Amino acid sequence: MRDLSLHLLDLAQNSISAGAKHISMKLSLYENDELHFFIKDDGDGMDSTLVKEVLSPFVTSRTTRKVGMGIPLIKESAESTGGTFKLNSTLQKGTDLFAVLNTKHIDCIPIGDIAESFVSLICANPQTPEFTLALESPLGSETYQTEELKRMLDGVELTEPEVIEWLRRSIDEKTRALFGGKV
C-alpha cells in the first residue's frame, strides 16, 4: 500500500466484514518520531490459530478472494522502519491491531489522505458501523465520532454533500496541523 490512509481503509473494511458495530482508529505521533497506528473493533474476532495465520498474505477469512494482504502489509510497513506490530483478537469480542512506525526511517510510508479514507468509510456505510477517528501529536488532538456527529446534526444525514465536504476539510486541516511535514 502506498500510504497509511489506504491501510486504514483496508483494515476498517476487514472490521466491517467481521460484523463490527464500532470501529475506532487512532493515529498518534510522538516527539521521538514514532507514529502509532491503532484500529480496534467489536466484530467477530478470530481464534488464536487464525490470528497467527492471517499474518500470511495467503490466508484470509474473506470469501470473495483467496488472499488477504492488509494485515501482512501493515506489519511489513511497521517492521521495515524498525517499528513493531501487534495483533490481538478474541472470538465474539473483536480485534485490536497496533503498529508503530519510525517516521524518520527512509522506508516509512506517508500518512496519505486520512480525510478521504474516513469520509469514504462513512459514505459506503452511512448507518453502521459507528466510526471513531482520533488524531494526536505533541501539537494537540482531535476526535471525530460518527455517533456524536449524527446527534449534533439532528436528522441531517452524514452523507449530505455539505456535511461530507465539511468533514473532509476539517479532518484534512487537523491532519496537516497535527502531523505537518512529519509524516
Give me some keywords for this one:
183 residues; alpha+beta; Heat Shock Protein 90; 6-stranded mixed sheet; 6 helices; 6 strands; 37% helix; globular
Brief summary of the model shown:
This protein has 183 residues and is of the alpha+beta class. It has helices at 4-17, 48-53, 70-79, 114-124, 146-153, 161-179, and strands at 22-29, 34-41, 84-90, 94-102, 130-137, 140-145.
Describe it for me?
This protein is α+β, with helices and mostly antiparallel strands and 183 residues long. The protein has one domain: Heat Shock Protein 90. It has helices at 4-17, 48-53, 70-79, 114-124, 146-153, 161-179; strands at 22-29, 34-41, 84-90, 94-102, 130-137, 140-145. Strands 3-4-2-1-5-6 form a six-stranded mixed beta sheet. Strand 1 and strand 2 form a beta hairpin. The longest helix has 19 residues, at 161-179. The protein is globular. The two termini are 15 Å apart. The model is unreliable at 61-68 (pLDDT under 50).
Element string (H = helix, E = strand): HEEHHEEHEEHH
Helix/strand-derived category reads alpha+beta
Uncertain regions spanning at least 5 consecutive residues: 61-68
Number of structural domains: 1
